[in-house]
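Structure ticket #2291
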Amino acid sequence: MSVWNQKLRKSMMAAGVSAALAFSGAAVAQQGGQSAPHGGQGGAQGQVPEMTDEQRQLMEEMRSVQQELQQTQAKLSELEQQAYENNPALGDKRDALQAKIAEKMSSGGYDAEKEFEQMKATMSKYQGGAEQPSESEVKAFRQQQQEFQQRQQQAFQDEEVQSLAQDLRGDVEQVMKENNPQANDLFAKMERQAEEMQRLREKAMKMRQGG
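Resolution: structure written out below.
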């Protein structure tokens, strides 16, 4: 049951519009699964290939940078929340962006807001663990999630949506920097950490390819 709830939460987070307004798209992209320097799962019998000292060291570096990056993003998320709480106008802009995204997603009889509420209701229904979803419900939810995310991705490619998102992101960052002197340093730190994570992943890729 916990696995089902975890998948639901992940789906809803992926569906959440505000996540698209994260401070740096490149940094957010770094939060994907960590890449193992030597192919991760290996061997026909499920055996993991022995890693060299260099590969083990790289793994440790990646874990360390990933943790630091997530800590920096968590601090920025707190400052972002404060910015919204202290500036109702930002919330209005965010609502307008969400409404525009829902509008762009809705076509051909598809109602994005209705689908979103249905997904939340499904998550709420099984969140307590008292009731198990059937296989058909799991399949239906996954299909619903997939279509929602596909439509959302298409909406994010829309010029009007991108313009509104950039405008809001700029306003939020400005307020964060005005309200907290730490924000500038945190933004710069996050960018450095994201770049370092990318460098390590590229190094891991070369190791897997025997480079």
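Closing remark: The first helix runs from residue 2 to 15.
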